Amino acid sequence: MSMYTRKRAIYAKIESVSGTMEALTGIDVVGIIAYDVKFTPDIKMFERNPQMVTLSPLAPLPGARSGKFTFKTELKGPGTAYSATVKPAFSAFARACGLGETIVTTVGSESITYQVASNSIPTLTIWSALDGEIKKLYGCAGNVKLEANIGEPAFLSWEFSGVFAGVADLALPTVNYEMSTPPWMLSASFTLDSQSLKISKFSIDLGNKVELVPSMNSAEGWAYARIADRKPVLGCDPEAGSVSTYDIFGKWRSGSVGSLAIGPFGTANYNKFSIAAPKCAYTQVGEGDRSGIYTYDIQATLTMNTGDDEFVITMPK
Q1: Omega of the bond prior to 264 within 30 degrees of 0, cis?
Q2: 268-292: per-residue pLDDT in tens?
Q3: At residue 144, does pLDDT exceed 80?
Q4: From CA 14, how far away is CA 28, in angstroms rounded?
Q5: Can you tell me whether residue 26 is helix, strand or coil?
Q6: pLDDT at 95 exceeding the cut of 80
Q7: For 301-309, what is the mean pLDDT?
Q8: 107: which DSSP letter?
Q9: Distance between CA atoms of 152 and 130, rounded to whole angstroms?
Q10: pLDDT tens figures, 203-235
Q11: CA separation for the pair 241, 288 (Å, rounded)
């Protein structure tokens, strides 16, 4: 029987113990509306190339087993009051990318904040069901890139590495989806270094360096994945202006830093976002062209103020 590529679900759970796979059944199957889901397995093969009386090869031996899931999701909230159990569908994925989660449940002033962290970063068990087939990773850690284009929803592009636990036959589960509508990028202010800029798109790559932890104790050769480093980078395409108004090349040459503020955007309660970074340092300013208008192609590193504060997403009521 044929299997349909659009009939796919990806879901995850924070692991109680890093590197110990969780069973994802029943209430754990809180799905996330995902685009472009792809699974890439990686089994290290030992090539046996001894000196023999023949040129014929010996069969290679499979060794350590890992894999990656990549996919995109909409940046959106649940649309109902935040609580310990009511969070964005991307919550677990964000935490495993090193974004600490703070929830305020005071009635009328509820909010959720995601802020970069260096400690207590959990790992995930991630399963992906593809119309009758299930692929499993555990001990997953990842990276996320926020991408937004004018007039469209913002997207979160995820890449998770973990320990490959195999593939099996399994009927598609009953999935509880977050059915709120994502806000789109209109009436969303964008201010960089106190300059209100005309942009058509921006991206923020958290820049996590993810490594797998080797372990001979593991049947798969790996214990789990972890975030070893990060370097968040902003990209955007503002319309150029005069040097007297804002000397962006002078700022770059001098190593000057400035704050970033995006939003708030979104109008529905529990589905609004603001993004902030206290210090952005230009690392590249190139020439761009938007329908005949001179623009800058900017890259800037998001840097710390006091530490673990270089990137913050706030979701107010």
Answers
A1: yes
A2: 999 999 999 999 999 999 999 999 9
A3: yes
A4: 10
A5: helix
A6: yes
A7: 97
A8: T
A9: 28
A10: 999 999 999 999 999 999 999 999 999 999 999
A11: 13
Q: Which tokens belong to 145?
A: 């890139």
Q: Which residue has the tokens 């195999």?
A: 166
Q: Are 271 and 213 in contact (CB under 8 A)?
A: no
Please compute the mean of the pLDDT values over residues 12-40 and round it to a whole number. 89
Cβ–Cβ under 8 Å, residues 114 and 157: no
* Residue 126 β-bridge partners: 12, 137
Give the pairing of strands 133-149 and 233-236: unpaired
Query: What single string gives the DSSP state of each residue in 147-186?
Result: EEETTSB-EEEEEEEEEEEEEEE-PPPP-----PPPPBSS
Q: Where are the alpha helices (DSSP H) in the chain?
A: 91-95, 248-254
Report phi then psi at 254, rounded to 5: -90, -10
pLDDT tens-digit series, residues 145-164: 999 999 999 999 999 999 99
Q: Is the bond leading into 183 cis (omega within 30 degrees of zero)? A: no
Contact predicate 97/208, CB 8 Å = yes
Asked if pLDDT for residue 28 goes beyond 70, the answer is no
